[in-house]
Amino acid sequence: MALVVCKFGGTSVATPERVINVAKRLIAKHRAGDQVVAVVSAMGKTTDDLLRLAQAVTDDPPSREMDMLLSTGEQVSMSVLAMAIDALGCKSVSLTGGQVGIVTDAVFRKAKIREIKPDRIRMELADDKIVIVAGFQGVTRAGDITTLGRGGSDTTAVAVAAGLKADRCEIYSDVDGIYTTDPRVCPRARKLDVISYEEMLELAASGAGVLQMRAVEFARHFGVVIECRSAFTDEPGTLVKEVNDKMESAVVSGIAFDNSEAKVTIRDVPDRVGIAARVFGTIAAAMCNVDMIVQNISEDHYTDLTFTTPIQDLPRLRPILDEMIENLGAREYIIDESIVKLSIVGAGMKSNPGIAAKMFQVLADNEVNISLITTSSIRISVVIDGDQTQKAVQKLHTAFGLDSDKVFEETQLSGEELAAKMEKGR
Asked: What single-letter DSSP state applies at residue 334?
C-alpha cells in the first residue's frame, strides 16, 4: 500500500464531467489499496472570474480581502470533487489549507509556507477516506487566509507530500509531462522521461509553466519525487528528482520563455556609491520583484540602470519610479512590456564550452536582437522582442538537437470524449 498525493490543475476539473473523471481516477487508486490525498486548483477560469469581480468594484483591492476572495475558487473544486467521490460510493472529505495545517507567513497574495501539521489528514486517511485538499492556500498564525501565489497548488501538493512523507507526488494537468519546450510553439518538442531538480528549477524560473518554481524548491529540499502526468490518460509522465551527477547529461535539456515580465530602464542615474542599493532597496520594500539587472558603463558620472520585473508589479512600481526620478536626479524611466525572456537550460553546460557563443550565433543568423543577457552554471537567458519568440525557440531547439521525430498535435476533447479515453486507458 502506497501513500499518494495527486494534484489536479484547473483544466482537469474545469467541468462536471472532468470532475467525475478525476473522482473515478482517485477511486481506482484507493480500491487498488493506496491511501489517496488529492490537491485541487480552482475549476477552469474561476480565478480569472474572481479577479474580474474584484476589479469591477475597485482598482486597488486590499491584499487580505483578495486572498479571502481568491481562496474560494479552490474550495468550490474540493467540495464538488468530494461530492462526486461520495456519489460513486467511496468515502471522502474536503479540507481547506487551514484545516490541513498549512501555516504561512502574512504576506498576502504571495504567502510562504512556514510549517505543515498534517494530523487531520492522517486521521481522515485512517478512516479509509480519500482526502481532498484545497490548493493555493494556507492560514497565518492569526487565522487569516492567505494564498501562495501563481501556481501555488503545486506547492501545496509537494508540501503535503513532504509533511506526510508520501511515497510519491503526482502532478496532473492537460499535458502529459515536461517537454524540451512548449510544444504549441515548437511542434517538434520532445517529452522528457526524467529531469533533475536543478534543471527543473531553472526552467520554472525561466517561464516553463508545468511546475511552480517554489514547488520544485520544496521538493528538492525534502526529497519529494514528482511525476508530471496527464489527467486524461494513463501514460507515464516525467519524473523530477535528484539525478546522479556521474550520468552523462544532455548539453541542453530544454528551452523556456517568459512573456510576463517588462523591461525597465532608468536613464541618466548619478553614478555614485550606494545608488544601486538605494534604487533596488526601495523597489524591494514595495514587494516588487526584480530579475535581470544591467548597469551601463558610466559616462560623465551618469549611468543607465536596466532591469526586468513582473508586469503585474508595474502598478506598484510606477509611483515609486516617479518619486525616484525626482529624488535621484535621474532623467527619466522607460518601460517596455513587449519583451520576452528566453532561456536555454542544461546540466551539460557545465562541461561543454561554447554554448553561449552557439546560442548567440543562432539568434544572430536569424536576425533576433538581444538586449539583455544573464547566465548561471546551467542556464543562459536573453531578453528579445516578443514578436520573435516563436522563430527564436524553433531555431534554438533544432540547433541544440532537441527536435523529436514526432509532431505535437494539440486536441480539444469534449467531456464525453475525455471520459471514453480515460476508460480505454484503464
From this structure: E
